[in-house]
Amino acid sequence: MDIVTRKEAKERGLARYFTGKPCPHGHVAERWASTSRCVECERKYREANLEKMREASRKYREANPEKERERKRKYYEANREKMRLRSRVFSRLASRYLRWLSRSFSGLAS
Prior knowledge:
By secondary structure, the protein is mainly α. The chain is built from five helices and two strands, in the order H-E-E-H-H-H-H.
């Protein structure tokens, strides 16, 4: 792994960089260019605070519905084929499930 400073990483548009030096917790890992936090420390924090982070994310989405719509729109545009395929697969599975339900429980109504 190449050693890169945070400044160089930002100039090159990199999301992460590697200094080769341990973080205050002793991890020799990549760091985020935006915050300079160790990737490993960040991962451990996320694992330990998963519910707290989900709740904060939910509150942000509720408070900023226009930003959420825009984020979803951009994702759909960038992944149009993937989303169409997912929709087709879901539709087929749902229709099969509904047919199965109607056949399985049709005799129970009488």
